[in-house]
Design goal:
alpha+beta; outer membrane lipoprotein receptor (LolB), chain A; 22% helix
Length: 308
Amino acid sequence: MAYSQRHLRLRSLSYIQKPNFAAWANIHVFCLLFAVIAGCIGSTTPTVQLDSATRAEVDGILNRLQVRYELTGSLKITRMMVTIEEGDRNEELRELLWYKKSENGGELLHIQALGPMNETRGIAIANQDKNQFVLVLVNEQKAYPGPLSDGVLQEIFGLDLRVSDVLSAIFANPFLDGRTDELKPIESFHPSTAGTPTTFVMTRPGVQKGHVEKITILIQEDEPRVMEWLIYDENGTLQQRAAFSDYRKVSGILRAHKVEIERPLEQTRVNVKIANVELNVEIKDSKFDPERFLTEDIEIIPLSELGE
């Protein structure tokens, strides 16, 4: 989607509040890395109603994707390269990621961006249990805390970022938000040769009125792989493309090790390459506690103030 006037205003405000572009670029890295935006519709692509056999096949695919998510109690990534291209700007960062399902059922996420000497440049923590989000820019000694609210993230960053979108990108699963009732297959390719992958192409309405999403899933060796997630607006214009590839099994669970997110109208592309990932390892809850970063030597700027 094109920059809104609000987005442009907030970006101008960011240059005043932060001493250099690198600080604001850190925010974009954290947001665009997993910002799979809910999107677009009004497509004229013909759809068909699911018969009972097709519905059962689709449900089987969704169930297998859901099982991968449920079997992942924690996730630790210690080698992740992120390249972000925005117009003629290009930045590459190494990032670390920790994810955990808490005993209370909340989703906990901690991301660190490292500089060229592996120094910590930025920290982002989302803690559902405490309803807290904080972004810390280490060099600038500034922290931006606020409630973990979809509305707040959209107001501050100008992105339709939802908590479920972040999880969808981490797990290469667009269906974690539960929007499957209106899912319709528009194409399916069943090979005549045994062992050859089967491809499903499905559509569903987006979160916003008049939007449509198109999702391509490859079935290989009975394992579904979400390959592409396209989002179109009411005019049929591509708003965002997310592609998942390089699937490998980690602790018996199939995971995508490459993610590419492209927003054509904003001339933005984010590439993520994961080299080292561990599943279901012990991670202390303190890793996701934002309060430990809000020290006396850090200037605290509530997220609500950025939106004023």
